[in-house]
Structure formats: structure tokens, C-alpha cells
Amino acid sequence: MTQGKKEQVRVMFDNIAGKYDFLNHFLSAGIDVLWRKRLVKMLMKSNPERILDVATGTADLAIELARKTKASITGVDISQGMLDIGQQKLITKKLDHQIVLKLADSEMLPFENHSFDAAMVAFGVRNFENLDKGLAEMQRVLTKNGMIVVLEFSRPRVFPVKQFYNFYFRFILPSLGRIVSKDKEAYTYLPESVGNFPDGNDFLVHLENANFSKVSQRRLTFGIATIYTGFKL
């Protein structure tokens, strides 16, 4: 594509917004729900009162978090289509007073320094056009000792999970995603973006470069996904 990655991502998610939740749960056999629950459990250890959900999409993670806390949650995303679906869910679940959704760029967050006690991202950082800039922005808006928690796909290393995962991501997932979403590129982009993402220890280096300390990772489900954590210096 000639358009920048940011615009590509925005258009792509606008196009698949209506089918996004179904596809997420279907293509992951529902395990993405368990991964989000694990992230929320880890985040709640720091008892944050003001939480930022970056690349919130249809607000699944924010909604899961709201089940565990009365804290104020702000979700941002560059796709208005995704936010519209998310807002409908918040109204249905009567969470629109606790969770506020905003159209915003993760690399230019419209918030003052030290605005949040915690920041979280689920399956969004690999979509950043500039990963380091996005992480630096989250660091900027966090209070001192504020926590960052990132859930992202990673590449399994062990046999036979690695081989099955590669086959599924390369052949099965794009075909199923294309049939359901009617979008030729969205679920081809997914395995490409995962393959290009600096997972594992490489991502911890990016967190440290953004001035996060005590960085760590917890691999989930044979390494298919990983939760990364860190704290603002």
C-alpha cells in the first residue's frame, strides 16, 4: 500500500468493525477472553484509579476491567468505526459513565503529563506506526510509578506449537477472516504484523528505552501471546 501504516490500520479497522468481536473470539477459539482476564488481574495489583486503554477498539478490555474496579477508564483509538461499536456496548452494559471513549492517535495522546495511574494495550502496539513514539506517549501521561501492561501476540518457539501456529496464521486464519469480514487485507495483515513485531526480550528493550523500569514478560498458551509489564521511572 502507498498509504502510511497508520492510515492503513484506520481504514482496515473501520471496514471490519462490525465483525471484529465475532472474529476475535471465533478465530482464537475464545481464548482471547482468558488472556484479557489475565491482563486485568495483573493490572489490578497496582490498584489504579485512572486508567488509559490505548487502541481500545470495541472496548472489550475496558469492559473486562470495569467488572473488577470502579476506577475511571478512558479508551482511545484511531478507528471511529470501532469506537462506535464500543460505545453501543457501553450503553447496553450501562458502563458509559465509567468508561469514556475518544478518537485519538496513540502517538499523539490528547492528555496532559501524569494524567493516568496505569496504561494498557491489548493487541494494539503492533499496529503503531512508530512503536517507540507510542510507548513514549504512554510513559508521558503516566504518573510516577504508573504501570503499563501490554498484551500482544507472540511467536511460539517450541515444537509442535510453533509449526501449527505458523500454518494456522499463514493459511487458515486469513481465509476464514476474509470470508467472514469480506475484507481481503485485514486478516492477511494480522500474521504479517505479528511476524514483524519485536516480541519477547526485544519488546522489553523497547519498554526500557521508553524509560520503563522493572520490565517483565509472561508468556501465555505456549507462547501464542505474551503480557508485558513495566513501571514509569
How would you describe this structure to a colleague?
Helix 6 runs antiparallel to helix 7. The protein has a single domain (5-232), classed as Rossmann fold, CATH 3.40.50.150. The chain has a 7-stranded mixed β-sheet, sandwiched between helices. The chain is globular, with a radius of gyration of 17 Å. The chain has helices spanning 5-27, 31-43, 60-66, 80-92, 131-141, 161-181, 186-196, 201-209; strands spanning 50-54, 72-77, 99-103, 116-122, 142-153, 212-220, 225-232. By secondary structure, the chain is α/β, with parallel strands linked by helices. A hairpin with a 4-residue loop joins strand 6 and strand 7. Helices cover 46% and strands 22% of the residues. The protein starts with a helix and ends with a strand. The longest helix is centred in the first third of the chain and has 23 residues, at 5-27.
Largest sheet: 7 strands, mixed
Helix content: 40-55%
- Structural class comes to alpha/beta
Q: Low-confidence parts lasting 5 or more residues at pLDDT below 50?
A: none
- The termini sit apart by 38 Å
- Name of the CATH first level: Alpha Beta
Strand order of the largest sheet: 3-2-1-4-5-7-6
Note the beta-strand portion: 15-25%
